[in-house]
Amino acid sequence: MNQTLNRTKSELEDSAMDTSRLTQRIRQTQQSDEQGQTGVAIMIKDLHKRYGDTEVLKGIDMEVKSGEVISIIGPSGAGKSTLLRCINALERPSSGSVTVYGMDLSDPKTNIDKVREHVGMVFQHFNLFPNMSVAENIMLAPRMLHKTPKEDAYQQALDLLEIVGLKEKADVRPTDLSGGQQQRVAIARALAMNPAVMLFDEATSALDPEMVGDVLEVIRSLAEGGMTMILVTHEMGFAREVSSRVIFTDAGVIEEEGTPEQIFGTPQSPRLRSFLSKVL
Amino acid sequence: MHVMPLRKVLGGTQSLSRWVAALLALLLGMAALAGTVVTTGAPAQASTISRAVKGKTFRIATDTTFAPFEFRDTTGELVGIDMDLIQQIAKTEGFKVEIQSLGFNAALQALTSKQADAVIAGMTITEDRKQVYDFTDPYFDSGVQMAIAKDNEEIKGYKDLKGAIVAVKTGSEGEAFAKRNASKYGYTVKAVDQSSTMYEMVKSGNAQAVIDDYPVLAYGITQGNGLKTVTAKVRGGSYGVAVNKGQNQDFVAAFNEGLAKMKTDGTYNKLLKKYLGGQGTTGKGAAAHKLSFFGLVRQSFPALMLGLKNTLLITAMAFVIALLIGIILGLWRVSPNRILSWVARIYVAIFRGTPVLVWAFFFYLGVPQLIGHKISIWLAGALTLSLNSGAYLVEIVRGAIQSVDTGQMEGARSLGLTRRMALRRVILPQAVRIATPSIINQLVIMLKDSSLLLAIGFGELLYQAQQIYAANFRVTETLFMVGVIYFVAITLLTWLANILDKRMNR
Ligand SMILES: Nc1ncnc2c1ncn2[C@@H]1O[C@H](COP(=O)(O)OP(=O)(O)O)[C@@H](O)[C@H]1O
Ligand SMILES: [Mg+2]
Q1: SS3 annotation, A6-21
Q2: Which residues in B lie closer than 8 A to residue A186 (C-beta atoms)?
Q3: pTM of the entire structure?
Q4: N or C: which end of chain A has fewer CB within 10 A?
Q5: Nearest to A254 by CA among A104, A123, A103, A71
Q6: Beta strands A119-122; A197-201: pairing state
Q7: What is the rounded average pLDDT of the residues B33-48?
Q8: What is the ipTM score, two decimals?
Q9: With an 8 Å Cβ cutoff, are B415 and A130 in contact?
Q10: CA-based nearest distance A277→chain B, Å
Q11: Please, which residues have CB within 8 angstroms of residue B204's CB and are 6 or more apart in sequence?
Q12: Are B411 and A130 inside 8 Å of each other by CB?
């Protein structure tokens, strides 16, 4: 499965190479690595988010380089989802800035919809469209946004479904699938726009335990394929295994960050230690 | 900015447009069905009877229903004292008439604007009217009379009315007379809108007596309305035919001559007897042969089917407009654009917060005066129903959109779809499915509410029923038929709509 994924991924990227200016900018950022600069995918500066009187994010600074796999861990209510949702502008920051491949999301001139095409998101509850078949779910964005011909879009959907192991489910309704299958469809749907970054918000939390493995397997192969990813997860073992960096958040701030070895092996802050002692 | 072109709204959610089309086809199909039944009994509008002697044709405007002077008989023919009289005189005098059944006020307007040559509509000759019109000789001496239930043996005269309730018609001569004598005899006056209502009140014991125009009352008794008279009639005004001042004098002369002839040769008395029974009868034995219920059904069927057809047609028209309003303003209502959202909110508040009837009168009677241009009753009726139902549909659409899981919008937006695309392809199709039962429900409410339009004289089902029992006084049975027709139509409509819903939305 890994090999299939890697091959198809690179084919998809090649074929979509010139489709938009943003794609080119992403390329340029990735290429600038070789010129000694950092290929910054996402840059977050002093991000604050308030809901009424409660401050959910209290000044987040964070940088994600191209190809990095970041896991965000932390107790429930820490603001992990909010942080993730700020990266594709599902939430508007109260202050501070989020920059995705050089595009400042708070700049009114930035076309948020265009940015989102390059930032795939996978939700805890899948959010598949029940009024469409599995294939139509995957085809919708390419058809609407890239005007991909129906046959091509369907073929692409089949390819993506093959990657996540659900090719034979192309024409059923998502509601007829198990949770694990639905989540794999959701991943395929996000991949259909050929994103440069993938965001996962507790992608396995709503699944029965026996379904979790399949979904993690897909995410793992994406990581190995070089996809830039941010995972909010409670699967500590998985985070330790696939992440290049782990960020521990608590009460709206980044409490500690480092390599998986540092975070799980030699945690520094008392909060992280107590958190780990509870979840491990 | 967040407004979609309508074409897209409907085009995008194909299921919705297909569904609406199907519902409409249903309504219109039912209307057509009702229509085919009706053509067999379609009333003839104009009739000319006489061999042309002078060959002249006069356009005679009259009321729609004022039994026994003008009303439609069981075949839909316009008959009554006025009609028979004018036709007979036309015959003897050798002119032709073209009858225009317009309603009392419209008839006078037609006369003033020279769309008609004369008005015959049980019109009392008054000093005020004489300023504007010339009248023929009086052809009928009217007045008011009291009636009580047929089986009431207690009341023998006005003095027995102590503590009783006396029903009268709002604005009538009977009301004036009743009020003048209320304290003298110690009864209470209760004014209602229709003769048939008054008679039902007496029969049901809600009133003990009724004081009404003598001819209307006498005619009702001949039709077996279950009342009798115990006192003599009180003389009141006389009726005459009106023409514009100084005009159509040849017609006036011919009418007067013809009337005089009829009075001498006894045909005049015969005519009155035909509609009023013996002059001054107490009603005993005056009742005409009473039609069986099934005879009544057969008789009323064409008119009721015409009413049903109109009911279904106006409901269909109004439903289309209401749905458009509901979807467009429903989308405005949930739009992030504050102005649009408030426009929708205010619209809903206004139309949910005011009775349908107020708008019916406003559109039909008020607006023409504001814009100086007549509004067709269909337009006024359709606007009334659609603006009212539209308000509820806005809320139904809003509720349906909001009850679609927010994750659906987020899922669509996270793919890069615009809000508009997401609404069209993801949210609305799901919202339509959620809203369908409520929309069907609103359609049924609308169909029932359309009966309110009888207040402005729209010829829908209940209006036709009123016309029928205004002429034959078979109130309970006619209303029963109307109830059955509504019930069958609504049950059928709901049943078919639900089948469609299952077919198209699952
Ligand atoms: N739309 C909202 N309105 C108000 N409070 C919210 C909203 N979304 C999240 N919150 C609050 O913000 C805090 C952080 O939420 P979230 O980012 O979902 O945390 P996590 O994903 O880490 O569990 C929680 O206390 C939550 O109740
Ligand atoms: Mg969360």
Answers
A1: HHHHHHHHHHCCCCCH
A2: 411
A3: 0.72
A4: C
A5: A71
A6: parallel
A7: 47
A8: 0.86
A9: no
A10: 33
A11: none
A12: no
